[in-house]
Design goal:
With about 140 residues, the chain is α/β, with parallel strands linked by helices. The protein is built from five helices and seven strands, in the order ββαββααβαββα. It has a single domain, classed as CBS-domain (Roll), CATH 3.10.580.10. It has a four-stranded mixed β-sheet. The N and C termini lie close together (about 10 Å). The model has no long low-confidence stretch (mean pLDDT about 90).
Length: about 140
């Protein structure tokens, strides 16, 4: 059996956020839309990925600073987003996420534009499908 590609299981057209968005706004967006990972864009270019954990830890660490409200998502996001091509086999992506101890992979076009996202929640969903006897 051939392994599915990440393109077949990714969430297409991920919601993105701009690097200059304030932390509080980012956290509110994540909570309202039930998201744990957001690709961070700087203009039309991918800067990195922000997790809810990144945002919460930054909020806690800077709660007593006078410039707390000026903190931007671009200041705290992971700049080394794990990006894979759409044709990457799913097992390769899962191994990469596990090796890096991260909760998401961005599926990117050749020009770096995010086409989709795959998270640990999506991985659990796919594993359940396979264990229940589903294919691809």
């Amino acid at each position: 059996m051939q392994a599915p590609t990440i393109e077949s299981v990714m969430i297409r057209d991920p919601i993105t956020i701009t690097a200059d968005t304030r932390l509080g706004e980012a956290l509110e967006m994540m909570m309202q839309r039930n998201l744990r990972h957001l690709p961070v864009m700087n203009g039309g270019e991918l800067l990195g990925v922000a997790s809810d954990r990144d945002v919460l830890l930054a909020e806690i660490a800077h709660v007593d600073l006078s410039d707390h409200s000026s903190l931007k998502i671009g200041d705290v996001c992971a700049l080394d987003a794990y990006c894979v091509a759409p044709e990457t086999p799913l097992p390769e992506v899962l191994r990469g996420m596990a090796e890096r101890h991260i909760g998401s992979a961005l599926v990117c076009a050749a020009d770096g534009r995010p086409l989709g996202i795959f998270t640990s929640t999506d991985a659990c969903r796919e594993l359940a499908h396979v264990l229940e006897g589903g294919t691809g």
